[in-house]
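User: structure tokens for Polyketide cyclase / dehydrase and lipid transport, please.
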Amino acid sequence: MAFIKRQYYHYLIASGAGLFMALLGRFVFASNYFNDAGGLLMLCFLLLIPAALGAVTAHFTPRTASKWWRLVFAPFLTVLLFLVTALLFHLEGMICVLMIFPLFMLTAGLGACIYYGLTTDRDEQTKTYVVAAFALLPFVLAPVESQFTAPDEYRRVENTVVIEAPAAVVWRHIVRVPPITAQDLGPSLVDRLGFPRPIEATLSHEGVGGVRRATFERGVEFLETVDVWEPQRRISFSIVPNTATIPPTTFDEHVTVGGRFFDVLRGTYELEPAGPGRTRLILYSRQRLSTRINPYAGLWTGYIMSEIQRRILEVIRRRCETDAASTALAARP
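Assistant: Done. Predicted tokens:
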């Protein structure tokens, strides 16, 4: 470490101590002991571990450091160090890291501020007791939290597009969706997060009881059983992931569709008239969230589902309008 000046050693120690706190929490809460209680989605991990990280980092930061550095920048850098470490060593996937990043940033800073408020003008022994309390609190409260079941919340995500084509054309393009290329979909953040792109949707037979097979990249497939069939008006179906085709490495455990934390239950297409030769196509889905942070997790799942649905609707819109334009051109004398 000769390339690092001696006066910076204490800053490295502070970040190292905070990193150790976070990694300890990560391995403890990911253990089988806490798995049934939610593991890394327990509040004790998501809120109290980063608060402890912030307090520990602030405690070991040199007293000569500015208040901004101690309470903001040092916890921020330690959180980044932890998340980068989690990615590099494949402890977590990109989507999980991005989801917890804002929570960790906020609570780490809050933990540092609370520690500072409790220890200002106090002796060293008191400061040691306070930082020790921060470090122990997540593990002391975790068994208590594990006695409570995470609530289920059901959410609906809806997207709409107006298509310059009659309902008959639109209907043909939604009951079955021919293969979709990456160029058809265009770029999106959900691709960078590692979510598979939709490929196609087939239908065993028309009418109630028909089974759509919605295929995505990397072997992901959903079986969609039609229970509402109103030609040129509405099609609705239940959704079940085909676990026989989905490799275990496709999704992170915490965002697995059909898992204990998240599931997509239903999908519906509705067609409404939007003027002469125009159709309003509505796609909505129903999801289940089962975490202790459903309002926050719902922001992420809502965005991801909305983006997936939006891209599918855009592909359908372009295809329908091309189809309608070709039909109109062929009908000209």
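User: Anything notable?

Assistant: Residues 6-145 form one domain.
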